[in-house]
Amino acid sequence: xxxxxxxxxxxxxxxxxxxxxxxxxxxxxxxxxxxxxxxxxxxxxxxxxxxxxxxxxxxxxxxxxxxxxxxxxxxxxxxxxxxxxxxxxxxxxxxxxxxxxxxxxxxxxxxxxxxxxxxxxxxxxxxxxxxxxxxxxxxxxxxxxxxxxxxxxxxxxxxxxxxxxxxxxxxxxxxxxxxxxxxxxxxxxxxxxxxxxxxxxxxxxxxxxxxxxxxxxxxxxxxxxxxxxxxxxxxxxxxxxxxxxxxxxxxxxxxxxxxxxxxxxxxxxxxxxxxxxxxxxxxxxxxxxxxxxxxxxxxxxx
Length: 302
Ligand code: RIB
Ligand code: CA
Fold this sequence. Notes:
This protein has 14 helices and twelve strands. By secondary structure, it is an alpha/beta fold. The strands form three sheets. Strands 3-2-1-4-5-6-12-9 form an eight-stranded mixed β-sheet, sandwiched between helices. It has a two-stranded antiparallel sheet with strand order 7-8. Strands 10-11 form a two-stranded antiparallel sheet. α2 links the parallel β2 (30-35) and β3. α1 packs antiparallel against α11, α4 crosses α5 and α5 (128-136) packs across α8 (172-180). The radius of gyration is 17 Å and the shape is globular. Calcium ion binds at residues 11, 13, 15-16, 38-39, 124-125, 238. The site of calcium ion has 9 residues, from α1.
């Protein structure tokens, strides 16, 4: 079991929930979660995160409410993908814990300080909170040991526009500020690799109807995608970022500088420009990852 202190920044939707379950399964030293407006507005993102932690028996993990909108861009949600409440329309039991005692960006600064040199931060939503945290305390780049970002489409088409991946599209300014900072260890997990990983419909159908815990959660919240929307499955975008943060051998890639298009038709496009410090993932050991995901959440691997 990995014991490194882990912090997630999420916009809890369906795959964020699966990523939280995976982080708990692979690394119990989950020290905090900050929430951001993305797939769903901040109220839902925060409530969903608290309810998922409660369902998985981890109400000890503090949840810090973050930004309710992008730095400058107009906010766009992804309710059409994740359902109006962000969890495929599934109403989880209410959480009994209270929210954390500071904002999401302040929590990132706090955890970077508390676990200086050790913290792994994984962002799986728009980068608004991290950009604000950088503005509050630029020195966090020296304290956060490892940053893994689910976001971008580098040598691959986008998913919210032909050019842009959703997380970076929602707040391209924030993404540009994050990529511009001097991180010791920054990895970008984009659609180039996440589109090679999915919970297929066959796998969903193989989950027992009476499954509980993480398996029951995944079965319930992916029903809308697999049944109502009749999709062939859902991509494991956010869980892959968690798995790579704990085992970098799952991906290979090249180091690039990354810039963002901030407006116009290509708003949110992530551009690789020459050599830089961002490890942009281009290949993934998809079978190894999906098997590990299934084992950690007690899902059938079919
Ligand atoms: O483009 C995929 C990303 O956007 C994932 O993080 C998903 O949860 C949505 O936030
Ligand atoms: Ca997400």
